[in-house]
Amino acid sequence: MSEEQRSLTELVESTEGVVTPGPVIDVADLACIVEAALLASTAPLDMVHLRRLFDDTVAADEILQALGHLQERWQNRGCELLELADGWRFRTHAKIQPHLDRLNPEKPPRYSRAVMETLAIIAYRQPVTRGDIEDIRGVTVATQVIRTLEERGWIDTVGNRETPGRPALYATTRQFLDDLGLRSLTELPPLETMQGALEGMPGVE
Questions:
Q1: pTM value?
Q2: 79 in the same domain as 49
Q3: NCBIfam families recorded for this chain (predicted)?
Q4: What is the mean pLDDT of each run of 10 residues along the chain (205 residues)?
């Protein structure tokens, strides 16, 4: 092997496994890109999608730092940046929403007390069957109540109980957590204050 070939071989071996760093992105530019993506998105964006903005060349902790800066920047404004079950998103402050509702003549669907009581039982006792809900409420649960919650995306069937008839088991969804502004079920408020939280959800009468 010639000296030139030996040098080339040593160079290749010395660079094996070395990842060429991507272009350096200024912190301010990074925050602006993340901000624009969140404002343009109609759904929460998780870390996988946020890193995809940069072809995975930006570390998660750098993006988290940018998200922290954005949260500070949006304090005391009409919107706030929240981390929800499905990721990060901007949301209108609750105190601002009544003013915005005046711009939209269409009223959101109204949900009965029976629907919201059923939702509360599922949230705190999940997974539960329809029979469990009826035992707690003391009345029959109409099929329409379950269907309404499923169509709203707040509950879903997660399995079947291994008892005669194998009744369906219901649990809340990530959409339910997102609509409440929560990241996980561990953040559910105490049961005695849950009613007020549910009444603040869109469409509750």
A1: 0.62
A2: yes
A3: SMC-Scp complex subunit ScpB
A4: 50 46 72 94 93 92 93 91 91 85 73 88 94 93 93 94 93 90 86 65 54
